[in-house]
Amino acid sequence: MIGVIGGTGFYAFLDEAREVGVKTPYGPPSASPTVGSVAGVEVAFLPRHGHDHQFPPHLIPYRANLWALKELGVDRIISPCAAGSLVRAYEPGHLVVSDQLVDRTWGRASTFFEGPEVVHVAFADPYCPELRPLAIESARAANATVHETGTMVVIQGPRFSTRAESNWYAAQGWQVIGMTQAPEAVLARELEMCFVNIAVVTDYDVGVEGDIPPVTHAAVIERFRQTLGTLKEAVRVLIPRAAGTARACDCAVALSAASG
Questions:
Q1: Mean of the pLDDT values across residues 136-149?
Q2: 79: part of which helix (H) or strand (E)?
């Protein structure tokens, strides 16, 4: 089964969709997953912020969300999100298939292993090397302008960056900025699920373009709405391609050498 974690605009994907209640050791997920099919492939969709966008980034029940998808039989996750740009070349409306992330969050439960079992998963490459090329191809098939690499710096939120923070992130050579890829990606790795991100660039982050107003939530939502059709098409193309690929990546055996 393929899992999609995203916004409510993705419900239109699924044929014969039905909600499935799942209990987890970490409480309820953001919402009950919706299970249906795309091009004959079984898909579980989960809105990371809840049906009514009631969970801010730092309070999303990440562990419950990932656990619920695993319980349903998901082994590959597509994780689209909105992102700000830290460089001029990554323009609003472009798609980015991230290859790295930098975690600048704090206080989020970021592991399933809190003792007595201790696990240290390899996370040098946080995004699945098998899914990334398929995501790039799928974004191109959707006629998107796609960037094949990008480092996503994940900030705590829910506030946006100061100018000084944004300038510092850009000076590190990072390309895009968001609020939800951590701990989502590492939790997927701990459950041995493949994980890929497709980010929609919604704005230039503060400090990049000095002649435009600072980013606002309303502007982010509007740009995401404008690009949603392209993003949905990219994910729609990706789902059967991902399902048709045998898992030979390290994601599938992440725990085999991770126990302490």
A1: 97
A2: strand 76-85
Domain boundaries defined on the chain: 2-253
* pLDDT 10s digits, 117-136: 999 999 999 999 999 999 99
pLDDT, tens only, 166-185? 999 999 999 999 999 999 99
Task: Assess whether the previous peptide bond of 33 is cis (omega < 30° from 0).
Answer: no
Residue that the structure tokens 């699920």 belong to: 193
Is 205 annotated as catalytic? yes
Q: For the domain with range 2-253, which CATH number is right: 3.40.50.1580, 3.30.420.240, 3.40.50.1820, 3.90.180.10?
A: 3.40.50.1580
Taking the C-alpha atoms of residue 107 and residue 84, their distance in angstroms, rounded to an integer, is 23
Q: What DSSP element (H or E) covers 37? A: strand 34-38
| DSSP assignments along 94-109, one per residue | -EE---EEEEE--S--
Give the model confidence (pLDDT) of 4-26 as tens digits: 998 756 666 787 889 999 999 99
Cut 0.90: pTM above it? yes
Q: Does the annotation count 203 as an active-site position?
A: yes
Query: Catalytic: which of 75, 99, 103, 203?
Result: 203
Our CA angle for 231, 237, 238, nearest 5°, is 85
Give the model's confidence band at 147: pLDDT under 50 very low, under 70 low, under 90 confident, else very high: very high
Distance, in Å, from the CA atom of 174 to the CA atom of 66, rounded to the nearest integer, reads 26
Kindly state the tokens that stand for 125: 């490459």
Mean pLDDT score, 215-226: 80
Q: Which of 103, 205, 211, 250 is catalytic?
A: 205
**Of 71, 65, 67, which Cα lies nearest the Cα of 6?**
65
21: its two tokens? 């209640």
